[in-house]
Design goal:
- This protein is an alpha/beta fold and 364 residues long.
- It folds into three domains: 67 residues, no CATH class; 32 residues, no CATH class; 246 residues, Alpha-Beta Barrel (TIM Barrel), CATH 3.20.20.
- The chain is built from 16 helices and ten strands.
- Helix 12 links the parallel strand 7 and strand 8.
């Protein structure tokens, strides 16, 4: 016998006027599934019997439905300790006991919390960024870390929702996507390119997004030179939108994974020196690293990037506050800030789970 959820079974009984027999307790225990308790079934049966003599079939159905609703968990519950009114997390809130699982992994009476809007997610993340910045003793700046809202594969409507909530800095991973989105956003949007950049797409990126502020993923001298030349050819257009020099960061592979782009820590200073000394159209902003595949980084990854900054500052005669660290994503941005990050890149925590890769998304 297949036993339905309490909500399904109670409603169907009330509307159809049928009350199937209660299965033996040993059957319930063996299957790991539950149905209405005996007292609840008695309530449904009594309500149905009380309406049996009603003249109108509609009145009978209405009475049965009322009996059904009386057995369902309330829409809101109030905590006796705090007096807070909220949505019930499970039937423990409503019935004082936990129910077993039905078919599937969901629990009876367990309510999914109301969907948070993108703006609400953003506000939550922004507050956590400020709190982590306050706790941090490793950051050179007294200002909160910069929050880059990573909107790859997300529709412009979600970006506008964040913009309307006060967010100005957005990050994209794909050239074609940022080129398409930039004209649809207000002109004061601050764009960071945070994906791997192929040298043959540099010109399309620079010309397609005149207000591009930072490329965080420079990992070769060749790419630095390409960006420098492209920006030089496009300086007048960038000047019209108040962009000027293009900010760049050196991407460092702090985890040593072969699948990751970025220079090895020992090669960080030479590349930073080349950008600082030879690329007049670029502004060296700092260092960047990408976390582990699960969007987290080990503390030693952050420590490695901080050590690279110390080396760069010493080699180029720069102050620590002038060389930013971009580290930390959805799974680890708070710990990254506490360990010195000035720039965190948060995507799924704000916008929700990612869609397919953008190149695949375009084919659909």
């Amino acid at each position: 016998m297949r036993f339905r959820s309490r909500r399904y079974l109670a409603c169907s009984e009330a509307l159809e006027g049928t009350v199937p027999p209660v299965p033996p307790v040993n059957v319930l225990r063996a299957t790991g599934r539950v149905t209405l308790g005996t007292d609840q079934r008695a309530g449904a049966s009594g309500a149905a019997a009380g309406c049996a003599g009603a003249r109108s079939a509609r009145a009978v159905a209405a009475a049965r439905l009322t009996a059904c609703r009386s057995m369902l968990p309330p829409a809101r519950v109030t905590s006796e300790a705090s007096g807070e009114t909220r949505q019930p997390r499970s039937t423990r809130d409503c019935l004082g006991k936990k129910t077993h699982s039905c078919s599937g992994s969901r629990r009876l009476g367990q309510y999914r919390p109301a969907h948070m809007s993108t703006a609400a997610n953003l506000a939550d993340v922004a507050a956590r960024v400020v709190a982590a910045s306050t706790r941090s003793t490793a950051r050179a700046s007294t200002n909160p870390a910069r929050l880059v809202a990573v909107s790859k594969t997300k529709p412009v409507e979600q970006l506008r929702e964040c913009y309307d909530a006060g967010q100005r800095c957005f990050g994209e991973n794909y050239v074609q996507e940022i080129v398409e989105k930039a004209p649809q956003m207000p002109p004061d949007t601050v764009w960071h390119f945070i994906g791997h950049l192929q040298s043959n797409k540099v010109k399309a990126l620079v010309t397609g997004v005149p207000s591009l502020a930072v490329v965080e993923t420079v990992d070769t001298v060749k790419l630095a030179n390409k960006l420098n030349n492209a920006v030089g050819e496009f300086l007048e257009e960038r000047a019209r939108v108040g962009a000027g020099k293009l900010g760049v960061m050196v991407q460092v592979n702090t985890s040593g994974e072969e699948s990751k782009f970025g220079v090895e820590p020992k090669d960080c200073l030479p590349l930073a020196r080349h950008i600082h000394d030879e690329c007049s159209n670029l502004a060296f902003r700092g260092l960047m690293t990408i976390g582990m595949p699960d969007y987290t980084s080990r503390p030693e990854n952050f420590q490695t990037l901080a050590a690279c900054r110390d080396e760069v500052c010493a080699g180029l005669g720069l102050e620590t506050k002038d060389v930013e660290l971009s580290m930390g994503m959805s799974g680890d941005f708070e710990s990254a800030i506490e360990m010195g990050s000035d720039n965190v890149r948060v995507g799924s925590t704000i916008f929700g789970a990612r869609a397919n890769m953008y190149s695949e998304h375009l084919k659909k």
